[in-house]
Design goal:
By secondary structure, this protein is mainly α. Helices cover 69% and strands 0% of the residues.
Length: 282
């Protein structure tokens, strides 16, 4: 028996860091090597064995999760940096805020900064409500990834608006009774509502994640075993969830589940060929 030891070094100096390096390693080296493997030791049927296919599917899902995590980190929202006077960072007592509010020039600069942030947040909210662009055959995992992405975006947005610079700006404008605060308060409520919706949807969709993997298997009998439990899970979400209980949301999820079932059956029928009639008649 021959024993081999292989090692390497991940280059994490790029923009994506360790996630990007690990994703590249698995996508371009490990996965192609595994798929080209003809012999799987004592495993009968080799690469055609359902357990081997399940393992490769799990590796594929892991790589997809790495890619999703990397993209979500890149999508973190950041308020545009604004150069404010040093006096803002030194505000601490109520007297400091009253003195700053009495400075009309400073108040005007703070209103300009708040207006800039307001417009930036409005754009993000508007883009989030636009029609989603998805492939016609998108599976249920795409639904989870969509809400995970929104969770990252709006949670990071909430962190930004809770930053010290924004808090001090709002404090001064509140003392000065600025009219800009009315629009900001409305936006703050909208951000919180959207962030809560995304967080709630991710929580419930994660309960179905184990079924998504089962539906994705290239074995039709295993898929059939999990469909009743999957449908019960979707029914539970429709009944219990505060945000996912609309016919629009549920229909979208059921459509993606159907897409995945069709894709699974098609893969089972094709078994490596492009057309069904290319199979051997024997």
């Amino acid at each position: 028996m021959t024993l081999e030891v292989n090692f390497g070094v991940l280059d994490c100096s790029g923009g994506g860091g360790v996630l990007n390096s690990l994703e590249t390693l698995l996508t371009h080296i490990m996965l192609p090597a595994l798929r080209s493997q003809q012999s799987w030791g004592s495993v009968q049927d080799g690469a055609s064995c359902p357990h081997v296919r399940s393992f490769l599917s799990s590796v594929d899902q892991f790589v997809s999760n790495l890619s999703s995590a990397r993209l979500n980190m890149e999508r973190k929202f950041q308020l545009q940096h604004v150069e404010l006077p040093d006096a803002i960072s030194q505000l601490s007592s109520p007297a400091d805020y009253r003195a700053a509010a009495n400075n009309s020039e400073l108040v005007e600069r703070l209103e300009e900064a708040l207006t800039l942030w307001t417009n930036q947040i409005k754009q993000v909210l508007t883009e989030s409500e636009q029609m989603r662009k998805e492939a016609d055959d998108a599976g249920p995992s795409a639904e989870l990834e969509h809400w995970k992405s929104r969770t990252v975006t709006f949670n990071s947005l909430l962190e930004e608006v809770k930053g010290s610079q924004v808090k001090r700006t709002l404090g001064v404008l509140q003392v000065a009774q600025s009219r800009c605060l009315r629009v900001w308060r409305d936006l703050d409520r909208d951000i919180t509502a959207v962030a809560n919706e995304a967080k709630d949807n991710v929580k419930y969709l994660y309960t179905l994640n184990k079924f998504f993997g089962s539906v994705d298997l290239l074995h039709r009998t295993r898929m059939l075993e999990h469909i009743p439990s999957l449908m019960n899970g979707i029914k539970m979400i429709h009944v219990v969830s505060h945000y996912y209980n609309t016919s629009e949301r549920t229909s979208s999820l059921l459509l993606k589940v159907t897409n995945q079932m069709i894709s699974t059956c098609r893969s089972y029928l094709l078994q490596g060929v492009r057309r069904v009639w290319e199979h051997s008649r024997v």
